[in-house]
Amino acid sequence: MSYGGVLLLMDRIGVMTGGGHVSCFHDGLIGMFNESAGRYEIFGAIDGYKGANEGSYVQLRQTYLVPHKAGSLLGSTRHRADGELLRTNMQKWDLKALVVMGGDDHLGEAAVLYERFGVPVVGWPKTMDGDLNSRVSLGEHTANSVGIEKLRKGYAHAVTNGKPVFYVMFGRDTDKTSATVGTWGGADIIIPAEHEYRIGDVARMVRDAYERNGDEFPVRINGYKHRKPFAIVAVSEGAQIEELKKHLNPDQIDDYGHPKLNPHRLAVALEEEFRKADPKLPVSFDIITYDMRNADPTPLDARLAEEAGRECVRMIDDGAYGQSAVVTHDLRISRAPLHVVAEKQYMKPTGHMDYKRMATTPYFAEDYGPIYGRQPTKEELVNGLWLPEETSLLVA
After folding, report:
1. Which fold has domain 2-138+297-341?
2. In the 8-state DSSP scheme, what is residue 296?
3. Is the entire prediction scored with pTM above 0.85?
4. How far is CA 38 from CA 12, 62, 148, 197, in A?
């Protein structure tokens, strides 16, 4: 940039995308560019903390960024940060600050980078598990909206074929995702990650819902009633079932000590165990995790992501390092300490989940109704009477 023929050097800031990819990384980066307004050059670390450790940065241009496109052109890994190396390479690249776009692990490490190594860092809070200390996390609304639509449409499969249909989704060790998708998607049963069950007890719950739906919602044709039992089941990928550990890959541990979860193996293992517990139950499975990851962001997610990107630049302007953008109760962007935002949030203490009934409590629907809208009734879902315009609340 030049002024009166004099070349003016802009400050440089770094940014990285870490952990599982979400729908709105690019919108967050665009927010950073929009707020920078030519005041900063932005350099992206390739593959998250791995690139930041190695000093693998590339200068970004806003023209590289496709708005409302899921994923990250910078790449993303689950590598841990090396404080000394990262700080040294930031100095080599003359970076004023680093924006960490990540979830609880990556933001937690960002807090350590600031507190222990003095790295000027700010956070942008993303995750689909919804377990950050934020009203919603960036990427969460899109993931849940996709899951809700999948379950609602799944009634066609369940009712037509007379089956319990299981939908495996996110939730490594927390239940907000399966609770939200199950509640607004019309699930009869939610198999959570925060409470352990025996397969026989789960099978009985599913069988009861299956038979009850057959009694209460028979297919009606010209006055003829045809009993067609069915059930919709939302499953956390970290489901705790005593007899079921086959989906864990203890030989594949990431840098944060988490065993890799394989939702496909979970579906196979669940089907095997259900056939043992209830051989006559004709179960079917659908894995929707990557559908939830890869969807273009909802307007709400895109807006929050862009505003959070702007807030990250403002925090750098203010020298407010060690802070993260955060979504407030009224769905606006504010800031809070990194270690506070990164604190993992569980469903169990909230009273939002009834683990005996394997369903959410009315308090949960009241709390998140302003975000996800009215719950369709079972009759509407069975008979296809809920209207597409009602789902517009999911993307408002």
Report:
1. Rossmann fold (3.40.50)
2. P
3. yes
4. 11, 11, 40, 56
pLDDT per residue over 326-346, tens digit each? Answer: 999 999 999 999 999 999 999
Label residue 47 left, alpha or beta by phi (over 0 means left) and psi (-120 to 50 means alpha): left
Around Cβ 260, how many Cβ atoms within 10 Å?
A: 14
Within this chain, domains 2-138+297-341 and 143-293+351-384 share the same CATH topology: yes
Two tokens, residue 289: 């995790």
Domain boundaries, the chain: 2-138+297-341, 143-293+351-384
Note the helical H segments in the chain.
Answer: 25-36, 49-54, 83-92, 104-117, 140-161, 176-185, 199-216, 263-277, 289-294, 299-318, 338-341, 362-372, 378-383
DSSP codes of every residue in 9-45: PPEEEEEEE-SS--TTHHHHHHHHHHHHTTSEEEEEE
Distance between CA atoms of 78 and 21, rounded to whole angstroms? 11
Tell me the pLDDT of the chain averaged across its residues: 90
The secondary structure of 184-215 as a DSSP string is HHT-SEEE-SSSEE-HHHHHHHHHHHHHHHHH
Cβ(393)–Cβ(373) under 8 Å? yes
The length of the chain in residues reads 396
Structure token pair of residue 358: 């394997």
Tokens at 320, concatenated: 């407010």
Distance from chain centroid for Cα 258: 17
pLDDT higher than threshold 70 for residue 5: no
Q: Which two tokens stand for residue 125?
A: 């809070």
Answer yes or no: are the C-beta atoms of 165 and 232 closer than 8 Å: yes
What pLDDT digit, counting tens, does each position of 194-236 carry?
999 999 999 999 999 999 999 998 877 777 777 889 999 999 9
The DSSP bridge partners found for residue 60 are none
Q: What is the CATH topology of the domain spanning 143-293+351-384?
A: Rossmann fold (3.40.50)
In tens, the pLDDT along 268-293 reads 888 888 888 899 889 999 999 999 99
Question: Cα dihedral sign for 328, 35, 294, 272?
Answer: negative
- Show the tokens assigned to 306: 């862009």
